[in-house]
Amino acid sequence: MTRSIRMALLAATLGFASLPAFAALKPFTADYTASYMGLEGNGKMTLAATGDNRWNYTLEIQSAVAQLSQSTVFDENGGTWRPLSGHDMSSILIKKSDKQATYDWSHNLATWSGDVKDDRKGPVALRTGDLDAMLLNLAIVRDVHAGGKALTYRMVDEGHGKDMTYRVAGKEPVTVAGKQRQATRVEGTDGSRQTVLWVVDDLPVPVRILRRHDGKDEMDLRLRAVH
């Protein structure tokens, strides 16, 4: 479940260039309804400034049988976003997981610790523009707002780096807080998994994130409010 949600939130980077969009980042709290394998719950996504061009980006999801918390600390450097550290915790029935990530840009290496398999601990060489999984959805929203069509990224997550590409699949009406809005639909495929995001022009987060596996809905986040 943890990896599914992480990938649904997307991850990867292609050196999305030195866009001034970072300066437009503002703290927010976004409330979602969450569904995972048919189980209903609540989700909360937050972005908070911590000083020195650093931000803390978090996602929390709770349901009757599962709890998940993911966070990424990142900074702005030369017009790009750099993940600095990550923390990923999940509790599903009696199964628990706690993982940490460290992105050392002084040595251009990423490593992982905690409940991580030995072959997933790294190190992995970092490149300028690399993102982690949590940061990808922010980058996609930013790039869609900027009118960019090259939604290609490199994700560095859990012991490997991976190129990922998404495409704009058109416009669709969506309902947010009881109001109909026009959204840009973005799709990405990774083997048997598909991720679909809906982005509205004046909102800093996707209004919906849908994850499918083998053609079946696996996870669905729908925005209730941003404040």
How would you characterize the overall build of this protein?
The chain is mainly β and 227 residues long. It has a single domain (2-226), classed as outer membrane lipoprotein receptor (LolB), chain A, CATH 2.50.20. It has helices spanning 2-8, 133-145; strands at residues 28-36, 39-51, 54-63, 66-77, 80-92, 95-104, 109-114, 124-125, 151-157, 160-176, 179-190, 193-199, 208-213, 216-226. A 14-stranded antiparallel sheet has the order 8-7-6-5-4-3-2-1-14-13-12-11-10-9, covered by helices on one side. A hairpin with a 2-residue loop joins β1 and β2.
Give the topology.
Blueprint: H1 2-8, E1 28-36, E2 39-51, E3 54-63, E4 66-77, E5 80-92, E6 95-104, E7 109-114, E8 124-125, H2 133-145, E9 151-157, E10 160-176, E11 179-190, E12 193-199, E13 208-213, E14 216-226
Antiparallel strand pairs: 1-2, 1-14, 2-3, 3-4, 4-5, 5-6, 6-7, 7-8, 9-10, 10-11, 11-12, 12-13, 13-14
Query: How do the SSEs run, as a string of H and E?
Result: HEEEEEEEEHEEEEEE
User: What best-fitting shape do the alpha-carbon axes yield?
Assistant: globular
Biggest sheet: strands side by side, in what order? Answer: 8-7-6-5-4-3-2-1-14-13-12-11-10-9
User: Portion of residues in helices?
Assistant: under 10%
**Strand element count:** 14
Report the end-to-end length measured between terminal Cα atoms: 27 Å
Q: How many structurally independent domains? A: 1
CATH topology: outer membrane lipoprotein receptor (LolB), chain A
Rg is 16 Å
Strand content: over 45%
Q: Supply the CATH architecture.
A: Clam
- Helix/strand structural class: mainly beta
* Low-pLDDT ranges: 7-23
Please report the first level of CATH classification, the CATH class: Mainly Beta
